[in-house]
Amino acid sequence: MIRLRTLVKDTSVYGLVSATRSLVGLLLVPIYTRVFLPGDYGQIDTLTTLVAFLTLGATLGMDTATALYFYDTAGEEDRGAMITTAVATRVGLSVLVAAIISLFAPALSEFLFRSEAAALTIRIAVWTAPVNAMAGFLIELLRLSRKPWVYAGLSIANLLLGVGLSILFVVCLGWGVNGAFGGLLLAGVLILPAGFWTTRKLLFLRFSRAWLAKLLHIGLPLIPAALGGWLIAYSNRYFLLHYGSAADVGLLAVGNKASALLVLFTSAFQTAWGPFAFSIQKQENARLVYAKTLTYFWIVAGAGVVLVALFAKEMLLVLTTRSYLAGAAVSGLMALQIAADSSYYIVSIGIVLAKRTRLLAYSVPIAAAACVVFNLLLVPRLNYIGAALAAMLAYFTSAVIVYFLSQRAYPVPYETRKVLGIIALCVIAWLAGMATNQLNLWVGIGVKVILLAAFGAALFLLRIVGTDEVNLGFGWTRRRLRMMGCGRRV
């Protein structure tokens, strides 16, 4: 029980970091969209995904390998050698890649943006990779050391410092896109002393070839899956740059921001799902609980998707300027993508419990290949809407593949009809949202409220929601109110 309480407490602290990151990212939207044109915003989003790719490749899977061996060393000195080897390799490779890209920045700028004007921006952006690799690794050591509050404090400090400096450079000093990445770069440099100080007892100045071989043995096989995941999530930006422009990428990126609150829910759910699913695996009704979880998840997430799909234009009216409103067309699709990603984690539980995790490796390359095909087919015809469709279909492809593989390994009686019904309603809501966006603002809002009510009614008419789900919802609400001290009034 004590260990469970510790797990819950640590999860809450780590959830605070995730929530802060999402909220701060959302708060940046009204600032950046009032300073930058969609083309500039698209340039920021493109280079951010490029840095993510570089960081992912330079990591060599060593974050997972370090976590695996952290409590499996011969002593503190041996652990220190392992950690130093991992961080030196990770940062060294990041520096090498950043130096090479800096050398060819004008050519890369011409390739991505059809102009060499972004060469300096690319150089600043890619050098955030080694700095973030070092700072991120040091902060991650705090999590592995079970120091959640220090981890949270340093993570949030790094986040707020980066955002604060970026706003200073962009808004006050007028440095444009260069300032956005310059603030992140300087923040990483400034946070390094605190990172070294808080982890000083874990670091030993000794590089170990033996540990390098062990770390690479674990980490290298993970790279294809990680790169495949990046391809599914971000490759549509580069197809969009080829067939469209950076402005189209900007509209896609801003349209995604309307799903920020849904991300908070799915992130919290994914954090809680694993420990919960494993804790009940020996219970007689475990498979039924897994099945109901998928249904209940889609009832809640589906409602979130419908809200985003219908009211994305109104959200962007508040968060951005009119030049970004066209991005509302993809918000519902991006929300569906987020829900599909969480569904992957739910349906994969059977593979994990059957101890056949090698099957998970099949879904990523297939979905990544499908993503390339979807982008080739859809982006030239539908522009940024096609890019959003391609990513969404790729995430669903991955989830469906894992669903069938998991059912063969560990059958679960999922309520497939109900889940497909909710997904169909979400797609209808997206189409309706695009149609009603053409109406007068207040007339459109009235129609959307009616459509939202119709979604709730459809859940009952299609027998997706019944008395069991209603009673469960009321029971959960009563418990939450009691926790808030309102139980006597319920």
Describe the protein in words:
The protein is mainly alpha-helical and 490 residues long. The protein is 83% helix and 0% strand. The chain has helices spanning 2-35, 38-59, 62-69, 76-103, 105-113, 119-144, 148-172, 176-198, 209-219, 223-243, 246-257, 260-279, 286-319, 328-347, 349-353, 360-409, 416-436, 441-461, 467-483. Helix 2 (38-59) crosses helix 4. The radius of gyration is 23 Å and the shape is globular. The relative contact order is 0.10.
The H/E string reads HHHHHHHHHHHHHHHHHHH
Class inferred from helices and paired strands? mainly alpha
Radius of gyration: 23 Å
**Count of alpha and pi helical runs:** 19
Beta-strand percentage range: under 5%
Mean pLDDT: 86
Distance separating the two termini:
30 Å
Low-confidence stretches: 1-8, 486-490
The largest sheet, given as strand count, sense and whether it forms a barrel, is: none
How many extended strands?
Answer: 0
Shape: globular
Helix percent reads: over 70%
How is the topology of this model organized?
Layout: H1 2-35, H2 38-59, H3 62-69, H4 76-103, H5 105-113, H6 119-144, H7 148-172, H8 176-198, H9 209-219, H10 223-243, H11 246-257, H12 260-279, H13 286-319, H14 328-347, H15 349-353, H16 360-409, H17 416-436, H18 441-461, H19 467-483
Helix pairs in contact: 1-7, 1-12, 2-4, 2-6, 2-8, 2-10, 2-11, 3-4, 3-9, 4-6, 4-9, 5-6, 6-7, 6-8, 7-8, 10-16, 11-14, 11-16, 12-13, 12-14, 13-14, 13-17, 13-18, 14-16, 14-17, 17-18
Concise synopsis of the structure shown:
It is built from 19 helices and no strands.
List its salient traits:
490 residues, mainly alpha, 19 helices, 83% helix, disordered C terminus
